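#lab-general

N.A. 3:47 PM
ok so I finally got the sequence cleaned up, no stray characters, all 125 residues accounted for. can someone with queue access submit it? mine expired

B.Y. 3:52 PM
send it over

N.A. 3:53 PM
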Amino acid sequence: QVQLVESGGGLVQAGGSLRLSCAASGRTFSSYVMGWFRQVPGKEREFVAAISGSGISSYYADSVKGRFTISRDNAKNSVYLQMNSLKPEDTAVYYCAASLRGMVLSALPGAYDSWGQGTQVTVSS
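B.Y. 4:20 PM
back already:
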């Protein structure tokens, strides 16, 4: 129902920064809770951050607090993940997700309805 397309991934050195973008096709984007997740091959998808429809509220995994910032621009139907002070353990495929139903900010993948294709982030030592 909602198409999500991530971009901005790449290869960076430890300590560097990347800014991921997610463009959504939804007609009521401002009503969607948006989230970022990441996944390493062989492991479960891991919550990174979520943001309310208005952008006022956000929620982060402990592993990224103070380093990553989630934001959104509803006029552009986009959500962003600014990643600073990157570590090798941040290496993963990063996915953008949207929830079309009313909910509190959730770290559970099952709470989200639509997913992007993912973008690879690789952090070298």
